[in-house]
Specification:
single chain, alpha/beta, Rossmann fold, 5 helices, binds 4-nitrophenyl phosphate
């Protein structure tokens, strides 16, 4: 079966937050048997880490929870992604505004703040953990896990 809906997670570097979201969401989708119906990818607005695996601190947190992400490699988001994907989920406000600026007007409504799908959290951004300590990566995981649940609930209702 071809995929019915496609989802792209976007952060700055595509080595911390968006690959975490990619891996967490992918596992939830697989657990519900929906992997043939939902296509998942991630990308960064910046190009510094193209081709690199996820940051070890992000993979360590995911690994602790039994979520594999060793296969993921960073890439940069482009205009074609914004044409192609049905849902584009920005981790923070900077990502959100960069994506809006890049997108054609008719595609802007596909771009969302990822944490809009976790209304139980007061935060509206998944904070950039890159220059902080390990607790930042735990917090990213918690937010991403909650928003992934919310997003999957919305998508599953539409399939
Ligand atoms: P990410 O984190 O956007 O969650 O992947 C970052 C990774 C790298 C950099 C910044 C944020 N950097 O400046 O290289």
């Amino acid at each position: 079966m071809s995929h019915q809906v496609s989802v792209l997670f976007v952060c700055l570097g595509n080595i911390c937050r968006s690959p975490t979201a990619h891996a967490v969401f992918r596992q939830k989708v697989a657990q519900r048997g929906l992997e043939d119906q939902i296509r998942i990818d991630s990308a960064g607005t910046g190009g510094w880490h193209i081709g690199k695996p996820a940051d070890q601190r992000a993979s360590a947190v995911a690994h602790e929870k039994g979520i594999p992400m060793a296969d993921l490699r960073a890439r940069q988001v482009d205009l074609g992604d914004l044409i192609e994907f049905d849902y584009v989920l920005a981790m923070d406000d900077a990502n959100y505004h960069d994506l809006l600026e890049m997108a054609l007007p008719e595609h802007r409504e596909k771009i969302h703040r990822f944490l809009d799908f976790a209304p139980e959290y007061a935060e509206t951004e998944v904070p950039d953990p890159y220059y902080g300590g390990p607790e930042g990566f735990d917090h990213v995981f918690e937010l991403v896990d909650a928003a992934s649940e919310g997003l999957l609930k919305e998508l599953a209702a539409k399939l």
